[in-house]
Design a protein that fits this description.
The complex is a heterodimer of chains A (565) and B (130). Among the domains of chain A are: 106 residues; 105 residues, PAS domain (Beta-Lactamase), CATH 3.30.450; 154 residues, Heat Shock Protein 90. Chain A is built from 13 helices and 16 strands. In chain A, helix 8 packs across helix 13 and helix 10 packs parallel to helix 11. Chain B has one domain: Rossmann fold, CATH 3.40.50. Chain B has 6 helices and 7 strands; from the N terminus they run αβαβαβββαβαβα. A 5-stranded parallel sheet of chain B has the order 2-1-3-6-7, with helices on both faces. A two-stranded antiparallel sheet of chain B has the order 4-5. In chain B, helix 3 packs parallel to helix 4. The two termini of chain B are 16 Å apart. The chains are: A alpha+beta (565), B alpha/beta (130). The interface between A and B is medium-sized, with 23 and 16 residues.
Chain lengths: 565, 130
C-alpha cells in the first residue's frame, strides 16, 4: 500500500512538472519570439536613425567648414586680384584692408601680410610685431609659393600661438608674391566646438599626420585605433561620411563619424560614446526587459499555482474515483451476500416447514383417544408447541434475511429510516448478544421519510453498528441508536460506551485505507465509503469520541431528498 | 352445507419437496381432504388428465420448472380449476402474476396448515358456486 501511495505521489509530481513545463513553454515561446523580433527591428531602425542623423550632422559641418575656408580664401583672392602688389605693400593700406575685412566678417582675420618670392614679409598689418619676418624656411611658404591658393595646417609659427593661414600667390612685375592672411584659431575652433550631442559627443579636426587642427583632446591618441583607419582612407572615398563603432582605449564602445575636409587634407571627426548615442534605445530595451522579466515571473508563478491546483483537483478526483470503485465493489459484495442469504433462506424454509408439519402431525395423532391417557401427554404437547414456536422463529429469521436481500436494490426510493433501523437491529441482535452488547433504540415517531437508495443507507448503518459491536465485543456494552429531526435534516445518532477513539486517529477515521484493525481484519474502507455515500446524499457524517467513555457517530440526511421523488 | 361437510375435497398437491407433500397429505386426510400427490409438473399434468380435482395447491418454485407455465397448462386442461399457489417469501410478484393468469390465491411458504386448509375450503366453496 505504501508503495502505491509513493508511486502515485511521484506520478502527481511528474504531472505537475509536465504541466508547469508545458504552460511555460507554450507561453514563453511566442512571448520571446515576438519580443525578440520587435526588439531587433526597433534596435536596427533606431541605429539607422541615429547613424543617419550623425552622418547628416557631420556632413553639414563638413560643408560649413569647407565653405568657410573657401570664403576666406575668396576674400584674400579678391584683395590680391583687385589691388596690385604695390598698393598692398603699403602697410597703412594693408591695415585699412584688414580693418575692412574684420568689420565685414568679424575677428576671423587676425592679420594680413605680403611676402615676396624670397620669403621676406614686405608688409604686415596685425596685432603682432611681425614686420620683415623671414618665412623662406617655413613649411607653409614652401608649399604656398608652389600653388596659386593654399591653406596651411595649424602651426605655432613665429607668434608661438596655434593658427593657420590662407595664401594667394600672384605676379607683379614678373616677380611672384604672396598675400597671406591668418585665420583666428578660436573662431575656427568654434565650428567644431559647437558640434555637441548628448553628454559625450564632441568633434575635432585632424590633418593627414594625425595632428589636431582644432583644440586638442588629450584623451585621444590620433595615430592609433579608428583615427588611423580613417587617415588611411585614400582618394575616392574622400567625399563620403565614414562611420565606425569601436572600443576606445578605456574599453568603452564609441561611435566615430568622420568626413574629409579641404580636399582630403583634414579630417573632421565626431566621436560619441555608443551608450550615450543610443541612450534612448538602451532605456527602452531596459524597460522592455524589465517588463519581460516581470511577465516571465508572472507566467512562472501562474503556471506553478495553476498546475499545482489542477493536479490537486485531479488527485482528489482520482481518489474519489477510487473510492467510488471500492464502493461499487463493496455494494456488489453486499448484493451477492444478499443473494446468498436469500438462497439459504429458501433452502432452509422447506426443511423447517416439514419439521413443523411433522410436529403438527404428531399433534394430530396425539389428539386421537389412545394417547389421551398417556402420562407424558403434557410433556409431548409442550415439546410440540416448542417445536412449532422455534419453527416460526426460523421462519422469521429467514424472512428477515430475505427482506435484507431484497433491499440490496441501489435505486432511490421513499424510505422510513426508523423501519430500516429496526430491521438492522434485529439482524445484528444475535451477534450483539454474543458480545454481551445491548442495542437500544430511541426512534422519533412520525419521522419524515427520505428519498434515497435503501441499500446504501443500509450499508452505512450496518457498518456503523458492526463497528460499534466490534469495539465493545470484548467487555460488552451499550449501543444507543436514536433518530430525530433537526431543521431540514433527519439525524441518526449511534452512541456506544466502548473504549473510544484516540484523538490522533479521529481526524483520519474517514480516510480511505485507514484502519486500526489487525491486518486481514479490516480493509480500512468501511468508514471512507460511509463518508462517500453520505456526502453523495448531500448529508453529513461526523464523529465525537472520548477515550474510555465511548464514541458517537452522527449522520444528518437532508429531507429535501424527498423532493426528488 | 351438510353436503359440503360430508363430501371430501379432492386436492392435487404439487411440490417437489417430497417430505412436505407426504406430511401435508397425511394431515389433510385427517381434515376431510383427499390429497393426490405430485412431485413435479409432469406428474401433476398426468394426474390432472386421469382424475378430476376440486382444488390444486401448486408450489411455484420447483426445480427445473416454471410454476407459472404449469399454471397456464392446468388452466388450458381444466379452465375453471381452483389453483392456490405457494411462493417463497419475497417472490410475491410471481404469485401476483399467477393470479392474473387465473389462480385463485396464494400463500407464502412456510405457511400454517390451518391457514392452508381454510384457503382450500374457501377455494372449494367458490368453485362449487361457479
Amino acid at each position: 500500500m505504501k508503495n502505491i501511495k509513493h508511486d502515485s505521489r511521484g506520478y502527481y509530481r511528474s504531472l505537475t512538472r509536465k504541466m508547469l513545463l508545458t504552460i511555460i513553454i507554450v507561453s514563453f515561446t511566442p512571448l520571446i519570439m515576438v519580443s525578440s523580433i520587435i526588439l531587433y527591428q526597433f534596435n536596427s531602425s533606431y541605429h539607422e536613425k541615429v547613424e543617419a542623423h550623425l552622418e547628416e550632422l557631420v556632413l553639414k559641418h563638413k560643408q560649413n567648414i569647407d565653405n568657410f575656408l573657401k570664403e576666406k580664401l575668396g576674400d584674400i583672392r579678391f584683395l590680391a586680384e583687385v589691388f596690385c602688389c604695390e598698393e598692398l605693400t603699403k602697410e597703412s593700406f594693408l591695415q585699412d584692408k584688414l580693418v575692412m575685412l574684420q568689420q565685414e566678417f568679424g575677428p576671423v582675420f587676425v592679420d594680413l601680410g605680403v611676402v615676396n618670392a624670397q620669403g621676406f614679409q614686405v608688409a604686415y598689418a596685425g596685432p603682432f610685431k611681425l614686420g620683415k619676418a623671414r618665412y623662406s624656411d617655413a613649411q607653409w611658404f614652401k608649399k604656398a609659393i608652389k600653388s596659386k591658393y593654399f591653406i596651411s595646417d595649424v602651426f605655432l609659427g613665429l607668434r608661438g600661438l596655434p593658427h593657420f593661414i590662407v595664401t594667394v600667390r600672384d605676379n607683379w612685375k614678373s616677380e611672384q608674391w604672396i598675400l597671406r592672411a591668418t585665420i583666428d584659431f578660436v573662431a575656427f575652433n568654434n565650428f567644431v566646438k559647437n558640434i555637441r550631442i548628448g553628454e559625450t559627443g564632441f568633434a575635432y579636426i585632424l590633418n593627414r599626420e594625425g595632428k589636431f587642427q582644432t583644440k586638442p583632446y588629450f584623451n585621444i591618441t590620433p595615430k592609433k585605433g579608428p583615427y588611423r583607419d580613417f587617415l588611411k582612407i585614400k582618394e575616392g572615398d574622400l567625399k563620403k561620411v565614414h562611420m565606425i563603432e569601436k572600443k576606445d582605449e578605456s574599453g568603452k564602445k564609441n561611435l566615430y563619424v568622420a568626413a574629409f575636409l579641404k580636399n582630403g587634407d583634414w579630417l573632421l571627426v565626431y566621436q560619441q560614446l555608443a551608450s550615450d548615442a543610443f541612450s534612448d534605445l538602451n532605456k527602452t530595451v531596459c524597460v522592455a526587459i524589465a517588463i519581460l522579466l516581470l511577465g516571465a515571473f508572472g507566467i512562472v508563478l501562474t503556471a506553478f499555482i495553476l498546475s499545482k491546483r489542477m493536479v490537486n483537483r485531479i488527485s482528489v478526483a482520482d481518489q474519489e474515483k477510487e473510492m467510488m470503485n471500492k464502493q461499487i465493489i463493496e455494494t456488489g459484495k453486499l448484493a451477492s451476500v444478499g443473494k446468498l442469504a436469500a438462497g439459504i433462506a429458501h433452502e432452509i424454509n422447506n426443511p423447517v416447514a416439514i419439521m413443523v408439519e411433522e410436529a403438527g402431525w404428531i399433534g394430530d395423532l396425539l389428539e386421537e383417544e389412545e394417547f389421551g391417557e398417556s402420562e407424558n401427554l403434557n410433556e409431548f404437547e409442550r415439546a410440540l408447541k416448542q417445536i412449532k414456536t422455534q419453527g416460526h422463529r426460523c421462519k422469521e429469521i429467514t424472512h428477515k434475511l430475505l427482506s435484507f436481500a431484497r433491499k440490496t436494490d441501489s435505486r432511490a426510493q421513499e424510505i422510513q429510516i426508523n423501519d430500516l433501523i429496526k430491521e438492522l437491529v434485529e439482524l445484528s441482535e444475535q451477534r450483539a448478544k454474543y458480545g454481551k452488547i445491548t442495542i437500544n433504540t430511541n426512534l422519533q415517531e412520525d419521522l419524515t421519510t427520505i428519498y434515497l437508495a435503501q441499500s446504501e443507507i443500509q450499508q452505512v448503518l450496518l457498518n456503523l453498528i458492526n463497528n460499534a459491536v466490534d469495539a465493545m465485543e470484548n467487555k460488552g456494552g451499550l449501543l444507543n441508536i436514536t433518530t430525530g429531526l433537526e431543521e431540514n435534516f433527519v439525524v441518526i445518532k449511534l452512541t456506544d460506551n466502548g473504549p473510544g477513539i484516540p484523538e490522533s486517529n479521529l481526524s483520519r477515521i474517514f480516510e480511505p485505507f485507514f484502519t486500526t484493525k489487525p491486518i486481514g481484519k479490516g480493509t480500512g474502507l468501511g468508514l471512507s465509503i460511509c463518508y462517500g455515500i453520505i456526502q453523495k446524499m448531500g448529508g453529513e457524517i461526523d464523529v465525537e469520541s472520548v477515550i474510555g467513555s465511548g464514541t458517537t457517530f452522527r449522520i444528518r440526511l437532508p429531507i429535501q431528498n424527498a423532493l426528488h421523488s | 352445507m351438510s353436503e359440503n361437510q360430508n363430501k371430501r375435497i379432492r386436492l392435487l398437491l404439487v411440490d417437489d419437496e417430497k417430505g412436505f407433500v407426504d406430511i401435508i397429505s397425511k394431515r389433510m386426510s385427517k381434515r376431510n381432504i383427499d390429497v393426490t400427490k405430485a412431485y413435479s409438473g409432469t406428474d401433476a399434468l398426468q394426474a390432472l388428465r386421469k382424475a378430476d380435482f376440486d382444488v390444486v395447491v401448486l408450489d411455484l418454485k420447483m426445480e427445473g420448472m416454471d410454476g407459472i407455465e404449469i399454471l397456464k397448462l392446468f388452466k388450458k386442461i381444466v379452465p375453471d380449476l381452483a389453483v392456490i399457489m405457494l411462493t417463497g417469501h419475497g417472490s410475491e410478484e410471481a404469485a401476483r402474476d399467477g393470479i392474473n393468469f387465473g389462480a385463485f390465491d396464494y400463500l407464502t411458504k412456510p405457511c400454517d396448515l390451518e391457514e392452508l386448509v381454510a384457503k382450500i375450503k374457501e377455494a372449494y366453496r367458490q368453485q362449487k358456486r361457479n
